[in-house]
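FORM 12-B: Structure-to-Sequence Request
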């Protein structure tokens, strides 16, 4: 509650007065060097909670399969699908590397002070980003990347299924497969 009040009008003065009563001197003045965003109005616990909820919604509600079906539809030809599968596999690998890096972020949040495991240069950049977003940033990006990875997995399933069946299908049958995907999605 104190931090929330400190961010309100005259809250800083009130906080300084309370701290002064217990012997702590906090000079007046702006302490933020970064741009003000909606995230700056949240305390760390709220930002982390928001990121956790966002992650849950991304994991459970993002329509990965429907998006994969929609984006795969224009690339149903056998030759095109083989190339697309390679691109999906490459994208999946790049996304994994990126997400793995973010999960190694050891930025102090709240009362936690984990030991850093990343190179100090990149850890410093991630810490800055986390501080600017009050802990929301990296967790939210990881949540969004989970949705991207789920999409890629669904698209790869379609590519495998289509690639395996495409040799046995005529163009008319391939169109039936596309229609079936459309009906299933609705």
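FORM 12-B RESPONSE
SEQUENCE OUT:
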């Amino acid at each position: 509650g104190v931090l929330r009040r400190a961010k309100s009008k005259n809250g800083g003065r009130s906080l300084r007065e309370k701290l002064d009563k217990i012997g702590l001197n906090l000079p007046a003045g702006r302490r933020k060097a970064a741009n003000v965003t909606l995230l700056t109005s949240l305390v760390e616990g709220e930002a982390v909670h928001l990121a956790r909820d966002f992650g849950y919604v991304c994991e459970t509600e993002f329509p990965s399969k429907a998006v994969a079906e929609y984006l795969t539809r224009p690339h149903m030809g056998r030759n095109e699908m083989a190339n697309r599968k390679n691109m999906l596999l490459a994208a999946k690998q790049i996304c994994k590397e990126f997400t793995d890096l973010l999960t190694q972020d050891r930025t102090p949040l709240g009362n936690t002070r984990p030991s850093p495991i990343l190179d100090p240069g990149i850890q410093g950049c991630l810490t800055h980003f986390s501080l600017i977003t009050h802990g929301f940033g990296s967790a939210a990006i990881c949540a969004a990347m989970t949705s991207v990875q789920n999409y890629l997995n669904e698209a790869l399933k379609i590519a495998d299924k289509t690639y395996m069946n495409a040799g046995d299908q005529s163009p008319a049958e391939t169109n039936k497969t596309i229609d079936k995907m459309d009906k299933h999605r609705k």
